[in-house]
Amino acid sequence: MELKKYKLGELLDVKRGASLAGEHYATSGEYIRLTCGNFDYQNNSFKLNTSKDNLFYSGPVREEFIMKKGDIITPLTEQAIGLLGSTAIIPEDDKYIQSQDIAKIICNEDLLCPSFAFYLISSDAVKKQLSAAAQQTKIRHTSPDKIKDCTVWIPDLPTQEKIGRILSDIDSKIALNRAINQNLATPDRSSEVVGVRRAA
User: Fold this and answer.
1) Coil, helix or strand at residue 101
2) Taking phi first (over 0 means left), then psi (-120 to 50 degrees means alpha), and beta for anything else, what does residue 70 get?
3) Which helix (H) or strand (E) is 20 found in, with range?
4) Which among 26, 34, 120, 139 counts the fewest CB atoms within 10 Å?
5) Hey, is 104 helix, strand or coil?
6) CA-to-CA distance for 45 and 104, rounded, in angstroms?
7) End-to-end Cα, the chain, rounded Å
8) What DSSP element (H or E) covers 16?
9) Are 121 and 89 in contact (CB under 8 A)?
10) Using an 8 Å Cβ cutoff, are 79 and 35 in contact?
11) What is the pTM of this model?
12) What tens digit of pLDDT does each residue of 77-126 get?
């Protein structure tokens, strides 16, 4: 398999999200703000953020920041060690707003398959480059330009599509097994409820 060297900026664009005014944060509404809490960085997947109760946004927002199902996102701040370089895929249309700590990945699909890009950005090779280039503050930051400056080696488009499909299938099976294991680990208390009712 022949690999070709690129800068990520030759293969994709990286768009920073909107600066959302805190005065419009709300506990209910039409749109939910994306935050770094939406990244399950250990499993490289999207998760619901349950850490805050004011995740909705009631203010005006431009259409370009309203996410679509299948959009690829990556964080620009490292609120937990290992977060930079994580990726997630938006699960629903017109529900989430891209905030300024979140970058949207837009692939040049003539050169880069989106399903392959999802795994490429979260690869150790890219994560190490982002970590090395991260701004050293209390909470480390990266930027669209630093992401685009990462060097990668990739195969041709048909091979990318095959790799992306295989890895996606594997992730789906892992997620299914994880869900089954979590259900098995949750005790079924229905028999206890029946017993209490009979005793009553």
Assistant:
1) coil
2) left
3) none
4) 139
5) strand
6) 15
7) 70
8) strand 12-16
9) no
10) no
11) 0.86
12) 998 888 999 999 999 999 999 999 999 999 999 999 999 999 999 999 99
